[in-house]
């Protein structure tokens, strides 16, 4: 079994399309009071301008995502 734990920061670009920044192995227990100002700093920075389109124009939400992968089989040789 393989498990991953990420924090997803969700945004919309200037056209209203969903955008996402994924942070691997985040701290546990982050709150809106901690994450929201960081997301707003990303919005305000305009660092991710793509040919005049602001890729992260509006911060919409943040969430923890835990994914578990259980292999059924694999063709790779085990060592």
What's the helix and strand layout?
Blueprint: E1 2-12, E2 18-24, H1 32-45, E3 49-50, E4 53-54, E5 58-69
Antiparallel strand pairs: 1-2, 1-5, 3-4
Q: What is the average of the pLDDT values?
A: 93
Query: Structural class of the secondary structure composition?
Result: alpha+beta
What about the largest sheet? 3 strands, antiparallel
Strand content: 35-45%
Relative helix content: 10-25%
Largest sheet strand order: 2-1-5
User: SSE order, as H and E?
Assistant: EEHEEE
Silhouette:
extended
Strand runs, count: 5
Task: Tell me the distance between the termini.
Answer: 17 Å
Report Rg: 17 Å
Low-confidence stretches: none
Task: Note the total helix count.
Answer: 1
Q: Please, could you describe this protein's structure?
A:
The protein has one helix and five strands, in the order ββαβββ. It has one helix at 32-45; strands at residues 2-12, 18-24, 49-50, 53-54, 58-69. The chain has a three-stranded antiparallel sheet, covered by helices on one side. Strands 3-4 form a two-stranded antiparallel ribbon. β3 (49-50) and β4 form a beta hairpin. The chain is extended.
What are the key terms here?
single chain; 79 residues; alpha+beta; three-stranded antiparallel β-sheet; two-stranded antiparallel sheet; 1 helix; 43% strand; extended
């Amino acid at each position: 079994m393989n498990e991953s734990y990420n924090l997803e920061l969700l945004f919309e670009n200037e056209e209203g399309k969903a955008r996402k920044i994924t942070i691997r192995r985040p701290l546990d227990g982050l709150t809106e009071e901690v994450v929201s100002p960081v997301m707003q700093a990303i919005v305000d920075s305009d660092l991710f301008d793509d040919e005049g389109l602001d890729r992260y124009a509006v911060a919409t939400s943040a969430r923890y995502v835990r994914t578990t992968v259980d292999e059924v089989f694999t063709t790779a040789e085990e060592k």
